[in-house]
Amino acid sequence: MRKDWDTYFMDIAHMVSTRSRCPRRHVGAVLVQGKKLLGTAYNGAPMGVPDCSEAGCMISEAVEIVRVDGVETMVKKQRCIRTIHAEQNLLLFTDRADREGSTVYVTDEPCWTCANMLANSGVVEIVYHRSYLKDTDKVHEMMGQKGIIFRQLQAYEPPRETVAYEIP
Ligand SMILES: [Zn+2]
Ligand SMILES: [Zn+2]
What we know:
Blueprint: H1 5-17, E1 28-33, E2 36-42, H2 52-55, E3 59-68, E4 71-80, H3 86-92, H4 96-99, E5 103-108, H5 112-119, E6 125-130, H6 136-146, E7 149-152, H7 160-163
Parallel strand pairs: 5-6, 6-7
Antiparallel strand pairs: 1-2, 1-5, 3-4
Helix pairs in contact: 5-6
Domain CMP/dCMP-type deaminase: 4-150
Protein name: dCMP deaminase
EC number: 3.5.4.12
């Protein structure tokens, strides 16, 4: 069966994510303008700087409020801050003119900082696969305010050869 465009570009984003060397999270993002692929990016340390596979993750620990079934609880969370996020790398490596009116496919729902930057980047549509619950409420609200189409591919299944890289 022929792949639809959503599957086609999300598959590419997942393939791109396998380039990431952070063992905690592999994220891929692609820029699409009128069915044309204009850029790819994944999360990683700046070029020429040791990455997570060489220097280990750079862990930042913070207490966060997490809401589960409407109940707020305090949870201590660890995150790797060594990498530039895929969405930010995508913005660093594409031109503003190419982004105007474009769509970004990204394997994971953008965090608040990436969402904020994407909202100011010329992109008019963001399609993601896996949820990122920490920031989802404020990200959805802001995308609504900006009028950016923000949608999740729920029934989507990534290519089998990329699944081994997924971190639960
Ligand atoms: Zn890392
Ligand atoms: Zn991010």
